[in-house]
Give the backbone structure.
Amino acid sequence: MLKISNLKKFFGGVKAVNNCTFHVEKGKITALIGPNGSGKTTLFNLVFGVLKADSGKIIFDKNELRNLPIQKISNLGISRIFQQSRLFDNLTIKENMLLAFDNEDTKLFKNVFGFNKTTKEKENKIEEILKLVKMEEHKNKLAKNISYGQKRLVEIARSIIKPHKMLMLDEPVAGVTPSLRKELAKLLSKLRDEGETIFVIEHDMNFVLNIADSVVVLDEGKVIASGKPDIIKNNKRVLEAYLGD
Amino acid sequence: MIEAYLIHLLILIGIYFILAISLQVSLGFTGLLNLGHVAFYAIGAYTSALLILNGFPFWFSFLMAGVLAMIAGLILALPIRKLKGDYLALATMGFTYVVYAIIINWSELTNGPLGLPNINKPSLFGFSFASNLSFLILVVIITAITSFIVYKIVKSPFGKVLESIRDDELASQSLGKNTFKMKSFALAISAFFAGIAGSLYAHYVTYIDPTSFTIVQLIPVLAIIIIGGLASLKGTLAATVILVLIPELLRFIGLSSSIVGPARQIIYALILLLIMLYKPKGLYGKVELD
């Protein structure tokens, strides 16, 4: 689904992403892990067009993503949540969800003349996805009036409702309660079982090892290991990177 | 006498309301700190005045005022597409100065600092809006149409995309929205109605010169938006009425004309200060000022 080859991004002397090569398989959960500052979020930003790579290739579903703007990458089928909550605070949860459906809302005359109505089908879909994350009761609240954990849930719901071929989740359980983590782990596993491709950054090793089919480990911008979670957790280089010498 | 004065005030409220509500589209709803609004107002006023002085009918001059201002908005959207916050404010303020410099220096077209006198009062389908009362009716009709269109835009899903850009542009892009296109639309809509307001102003006062279109003219419009509240149409109306009427009280307390101007600015500043201290979202705003 996603193939990254010899990807590089340097900030002056800092080698944030240094010659990375790996791939994300269709219908699987691939976790990207590594210590703080290892280049995980930079790599996500390179894939999603937030940053421009110095060199290398990013092929998603046969499309080269390098030098494409964010909205084009998004419209090719990547749905992403960021490390920090990025809900639209002054819109309701429902309005946040509606924005993710399609781009018909960017057509001025169609909207002004009332030809882009919120259909019953859209309402039902929003209800269904919000139920999945147990947020259906809050749909008419402004995003700024819900808790951080609830915001993460809505962001995941919004990323699911957006038409996509792959979900990219940057630390989806950071800052959420242990019980919510369990719920999210269940939800992601369920989505994978339904055929979703999920590429996730996470610090919580238990969370990652429980849900991931494949793990890629970054350290100082380089891929130091990749493979099945059982093998990764006993890898000497990975343990060194996490625990020090 | 009082009747004529009231009609004059209502016309001013109408023109200021169109200016403010159009600025709400780019500033309040899309979050673009657009200080170029006066330039669009000027383009509208001069376009309409020059066309009517050259024999074109009012309806054409009026529409072209909006269209040319809108084109200027689309052109401005290009160089500022990657700017935000203070940088965007500076660039758009620069645009106001550029338009001002063109008006003052292109004397062959604009008559430079001397301005354009004898601008015709509007007439439509044989009906003349020469009296102030009939002009007020025209202003009310145009204000109502402007409000209706802006309301339809901002309450539609299109308006929600604009709001998403204001709240978080990166998140909006990550949902697949072409935010450059949307910001260009917002600026164009904003500029169109500012141009319309400029046309009304030119045909009302029948004389325009560059001093009516300096950056200082933006202060009351910005004050209306901040006091009424960002992204609030109801607040914009309330604040327009308040800000047009309050300085008029100065006329009745016997101040000399040289003091009335500065006193008006002081009143705006005081009201702004009080609003920021005690009601940071403005009268009806739902978005807090950053």
Remarks:
- The two ends of chain A are 36 Å apart (CA to CA).
- Residues 2-243 of chain A form a domain with the Rossmann fold fold (CATH 3.40.50.300).
